[in-house]
Amino acid sequence: MKKPAKTKSKNGGNNPPALELRLYVAGQTPKSLAAMSNLKRICSEHLDGTYTLEVIDLMKNPALAQGDQILAIPTLVRNLPVPIRKIIGDLSNVDRVLVGLDLRAPDQGRAKKAAPSGTAVGAK
Amino acid sequence: MAKRPRSKPAAVVPEESTLQPLPKALSGISGLDTISGGGLPRGRTTIVCGGPGCGKTMLGMEFLIRGAQEFGEPGVLIAFEETPQELERNVASLGFDLKHLIATKQLFLDYIFVEPSEIQETGDYDLEGLFIRLQHAVDTVGAKRICLDTLEALFSGFSDEGVLRSELRRLFRWLKDRDLTTVITAEKGEKTLTRHGLEEYVSDCVILLDHRVQEQVSTRRLRIVKYRGTSHGADEYPFLISEHGISVLPVTALEMRHDVSDERISTGLKDLDEMLGGKGFYRGSSILISGTAGSGKTTLSASFVDAACRRGERTLLVGFEESVKQVGRNMRSVGIDLKQWLDSGVLVHEAWRPSQYGIEAHLLRIHELIETVKPQHVVIDPITNLINGSGAKEIYSMLMRLMDYLKSQQITSIFTNLTDGNESAEQTEVGISSLTDTWLLCRDQELNGERNRCLYVLKSRGMPHSRQVREFVMGADGIRLIAPYVGAGQVLTGASRVAQEAREKAEWLLRSQEIERKQEALERKRGALEAQIRALQVEFMAEELELERTIGQQRSRETQLQLERDAMTRLRSGARAADEKGLAADNSGEPK
């Protein structure tokens, strides 16, 4: 079912992961593939590793769509920290993904970096 | 954004084939199947649109539930607005057990919640997730029916309308491909039938619901705006949401095929029975009693109720003017005891304020009462109060439906109707008189400073009836219908009648005294004559006695003379002396 695609923790498991992400896709469509590769890049570039990520293929597990109220594909769900955030689309707009994940304030843009401690993100 | 809908119902031109009728799926909603000519288009999409609170969701739910329960067609409900718990509660009030249906896989419920604030759009996407969920739902129960309640909620969740519209188009195609009979509910837009112009994609069947308030009374209406490929009722039909679900009232679609009874039942008044051909009303007929205020409508109907209960026939009395106890007291004053029937259960008396509900709710409650009480007679007193606040036309159609229903159940119905007392007393406000079989009119007649109640039979179908205006007299010993004094070109009632009758009585008294006097004189004369006859008879008897005595004496003397003559003869012929002597001694006292 759920396959943990990547779990990284620099702290060696001392702290619970700061981010809990799920990516919902439906088969190997171009959009799904694009979303997956975009997400991988964002994670490696902008996250310090304190996150978990599950990729859920609704083609295989259609019943799982109900739980997270998935309509659009692909959807990236940030379960933790609350509140729940949903980022839909192929994640090609990195800024919006970061805003959506609360890793960057929407207005402050690049001038000021509002992010969880230690994640210095120097986009652009 | 959206095209203006083609407002009028589509012409009745079958789209696919002129030979095969459009397959339809019965909705199970009473009345809707009648006006749609057999239900919603099978395997196609129907849009149900209307303002908030007009019953869209209810219609969709009932379509699914009845489909599952009555037609063995499992259904899927995709709810965008209400949670499963809310829906369960909503339909539980209609007596549907959603949980059971879900547990037995007759129904699948998926709640789709779209929260725009949670969603961030970052590039290309589609609504494949929705399709996956639909497919999953349909597969789970093997659905034949599906209801998407309110699909347009999607428009608030996603900002890319281009994507949304293309996905909607895909959705409708998807539904059609799977041969699902679909109901989509949508909020009514300002200029369009639906806020986001869904009718653009679906053109098979569009039903418009409406909930309007007229003079503080709400009415729900349903109209089939279009139904491609079939004929359908195009009018606005009132509908109710009751404990038994939605019920559309297709008045004009009802056929008049009810059985009729030849049995006659007493009106409770001997005098009134006489006026109605001597036998009273027909069983199962509808009777209208109209009249001005205080003309005795309630009393008349109460006496009918009393008679019916006396025969042991269940009767339902619905009052809008007086409380149950008040009616009981008032009727006791004219010698009708309704309480005994209430106690024995043969009479059910319900009273509520006319302003309590709208017209539809009133009729609904009456319907429900009829179904639970199962009466043989129903009295509604008065229908006038139902009219307050509603259009006459609605009342007309509602009452027609009620009467039809009662007739089809062979229930005798009495409606009283308050008229306003002017010269148009023969005109009922809602024109329901044409629906009734027997129409009694109570009227006040004012003459010589007093008002008197009059009653006459305006019409009574299928029986000879009196054309006389009777005076209607109520007293502690009951009700009487008195033939009024008719004479000298005028009809006299009340005190005038009494005065006239008194005058006649005096005259009659005089005449009878005269006769008596003459009779007495005759008697006296006869007495005198008879006395005379008796005296004469006595005289005659005395005379007769005297005469008979004389006759006797004469006869004995004759005999004596004969004897003497014989003796003389013997003497002359020389008989014995002893004989002579003896003879002489015998006749010594007698003169010769």
List the helices and strands and how they pair.
The complex is a heterodimer of chains A (124) and B (592).
Chain A: E1 3-8, E2 19-25, H1 30-46, E3 51-57, H2 64-67, E4 75-80, E5 85-88, H3 94-100
Chain B: E1 24-25, H1 32-35, E2 40-41, E3 45-50, H2 56-70, E4 75-79, H3 84-92, H4 98-103, E5 107-111, E6 119-121, H5 128-141, E7 145-149, H6 153-157, H7 161-177, E8 181-187, E9 205-214, E10 217-227, E11 237-242, E12 245-248, E13 264-265, H8 270-275, E14 281-282, E15 286-291, H9 297-310, E16 315-319, H10 324-332, H11 339-344, E17 347-351, H12 359-373, E18 377-381, H13 384-387, H14 392-408, E19 412-418, E20 438-447, E21 450-460, E22 470-475, E23 478-482, E24 485-487, E25 490-492, H15 494-572, H16 577-586
Helix pairs in contact in B: 12-14
Number of domains of chain B: 3
Low-confidence stretches of chain A: 1-14, 109-124
Low-confidence parts of chain B: 1-17
> Mind telling me the C-alpha Rg of chain A?
14 Å
Q: What is Rg of chain B?
A: 48 Å
Can you write the helix and strand succession of chain A as a string?
A: EEHEHEEH
The biggest sheet of chain A amounts to: 5 strands, mixed
Strand pairing plus helix content of chain A: what structural class? alpha+beta
Question: How would you characterize this protein structure?
Answer:
- The complex is a heterodimer of chains A (about 120) and B (about 600).
- Chain A is α+β, with helices and mostly antiparallel strands and about 120 residues long.
- Chain A has a single domain (about 5-100), classed as Glutaredoxin, CATH 3.40.30.
- Chain A is about 25% helix and about 25% strand.
- Chain A is built from 3 helices and 5 strands.
- Chain A has a 5-stranded mixed beta sheet, with helices on one face.
- In chain A, helix 1 links the parallel strand 2 and strand 3.
- The model of chain A is unreliable at about 1-15 and about 110-124 (pLDDT under 50).
- The longest helix of chain B has about 80 residues, at about 495-570.
- Helices cover about 40% and strands about 25% of the residues of chain B.
- Chain B has 16 helices and 25 strands.
- A 9-stranded mixed beta sheet of chain B has the order 5-4-7-8-3-9-10-11-12, with helices on both faces. A 9-stranded mixed beta sheet of chain B has the order 17-16-18-19-15-20-21-22-23, sandwiched between helices.
- The chains are: A alpha+beta (about 120), B alpha/beta (about 600).
- The interface of A and B includes residues 24, 59 and 97 of A.
